[in-house]
Amino acid sequence: MFTGAYDLPWWGYVIYTLAMTHITIAAVTIYLHRHQAHRALDLHPLPSHFFRFWLWLTTGMITKEWAAIHRKHHAKCETVEDPHSPQIYGIRKVLWQGAELYREESTNKETLDRYGHGTPDDWLERNLYSRFNIVGISIMLVANVILFGPLGLTIWAVQMMWIPLLAAGVINGIGHFWGYRTFQPADASRNIVPWGILIGGEELHNNHHAYGTSARLSNRWYEFDIGWLYIRCLEVLGLADVKKIAPRLKLDPAKTHCDLATLQAVVTHRYEVLAKYAKSLRTTCADEMRALRASAVSVDFRALKRWLHIDTNTLPQTERDERERVLKASSRLATVYTMRDELAGLWQRSTASKEQLVHQLEDWCRRAEASGIDALRNFSRRLRCYA
Fold first, then answer.
1. What domain range includes position 176?
2. Which of 74, 109, 212, 288 has the fewest CB atoms lying closer than 10 Å?
């Protein structure tokens, strides 16, 4: 019986499979995601074509389709037009049938025409990769069988399910359903774990949605993005050119008034501002909730916490009514949540001039510091230091 060209110990097959699938993950996050979909970096033709060829062998995915669907996901995130939102389709469907949702959207010509611009359109793409995308994975199947015999079928099956499960399922599903949030963009994105290794850094999904065009997905000292490590290695070798990374917040402790620099910093770091606001006022809200309960006013702490992170206009009407009921019972909570809404509204007022926005921000800070709420006053004083 033919057993293949190589007879490896069991751990040899495991290492080979993990190495092959990890290269595929690197190709997806570096080439498809950060380079093609978001233009966060430029790639030299050598790694660019290697990644394109490797994805043809191991996934059969077409660059234009992937980039277009992902761009639409960002443009229509958590709406009925989002191709794969667990908030719309449910976590089970996206987790286990994410690849089917991808294939369904790939047949939408409007999506490809509107969001697929700037992707490869050379002779190879038109006559090989897009036209015969099944041929690549068939070649990989034959190669695995030649190398490892019948066991190569199992290795090939793992390769074929790796991206549909981890990218289409875990990232698109769990990445919008479970985990921690460093920033507060207007979607449900979450960081699954702080160490982006298994899925090439895509585990840091909330960071990505906060700064979509950043080539680096890690933002905190304890976060690790292995995809960024590979990009830095390519950059050192002259094979990549990073265009943009997430900005770092700078503070000037000497500042006591808001100016244009403060406004620009607040707008640039708006998702971090809202996250820090929620964190700063969490204890205040918990204390006030206990006081309300002592007065026989029923309060759902989970809902109270969630309202600190979500814009009022995105809440269902039933939750808006409940929020209004609770805020009427507590002037302190009303101040906390009203001030949160006003702060979020600053960068949504596109008709106001920069000078008007600076004045509104300074007025917000004055009222926050005069509110009598220590946490709100401290938050405002730190906000003035943004530079």
1. 10-242
2. 109
Question: Is 254 a member of any domain?
Answer: no
Say whether both 295 and 168 belong to one domain.
Answer: no
Question: How many residues belong to the chain?
Answer: 387
Residues 167, 309, single domain; the answer is no
**Per-residue pLDDT for the chain (387 aa), expressed as one digit of tens each?**
667 888 999 999 999 999 999 999 999 999 999 999 999 999 999 999 999 999 999 999 999 999 999 999 999 999 999 999 998 999 999 999 999 999 999 999 999 999 999 999 999 999 999 999 999 999 999 999 999 999 999 999 999 999 999 989 999 999 999 999 999 898 999 999 999 999 999 999 999 999 999 999 999 999 999 999 999 999 999 999 999 999 998 999 999 999 999 999 999 999 999 999 999 999 999 898 888 888 888 888 888 888 888 888 778 888 889 889 989 999 999 999 999 999 988 887 667 888 999 999 999 999 999 999 999 999 999 999 999
54/174 same-domain check: yes
CA dist 336 and 240 (Å) reads 46
Domain count, the chain: 2
**Best CA proximity match to 13, nearest among 221, 223, 170, 158:** 158
Quick one: 79 and 218 in the same domain?
Answer: yes
pTM, 2 dp:
0.88
